[in-house]
Amino acid sequence: MQAVNLEKKHDLFSEHWSPKRIGVLNGQQILLAKIQGEFVFHKHDDEDELFMVTKGRLVMELREETVVVEPGELFVVPKGVEHKPTAEEETHLLLFEPLGTKHTGDVQADFTLESYEEL
Amino acid sequence: MQAVNLEKKHDLFSEHWSPKRIGVLNGQQILLAKIQGEFVFHKHDDEDELFMVTKGRLVMELREETVVVEPGELFVVPKGVEHKPTAEEETHLLLFEPLGTKHTGDVQADFTLESYEEL
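Above: the input entities. Below: the structure tokens describing the complete assembly.
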């Protein structure tokens, strides 16, 4: 058994908006992602979703407000809340959510992933 | 709605081995803790437990091996596995585990907490 170094795991991939699974516990998955640019507005009707920033700056657009998440900070999007992650510079994220949470929630986009690679 | 800054939350308390709850999602709780010295060996029969280090150095003793967790790293103790967190210097942790997970698992100690303060 050994610890997981987040930066070293992030070094293993470069594509944006394509989360990688680095762990599972209690029916929840730990994902790492690199993002830059704009995602799509979507929501997860049954799942809360945690976003933690380790590098860069996440600007989470909600319908009524915008939340900025800096390195060393986390933000939980409650189930049912429409959200659109955006980042001006390349931003590294850790996500925590139930196994089976859909990539783009209630929305189907060209870049929607049906499953995540394991790292 | 706003982001949670982990370092600022850690600044709000000083006691060791006394986790504070900073969030709940999907039936799981996010705890922050400061530790120094040695805890007790214990296990959680039904819960996996995630430890992430943000400052210091966590030395997680298991029965057969020892896992060192540095800042920017995380380690998941699987359910049923006996573990004893230790830290030479003061170490800041983020824990992720199901709501209701017992502080010292299957062991009762003088310092066992029955509930956690919300931060």
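Note for the figure: The beta strands of chain A are 4-5, 20-25, 28-38, 49-55, 58-62, 66-69, 73-77, 83-98, 117-118.
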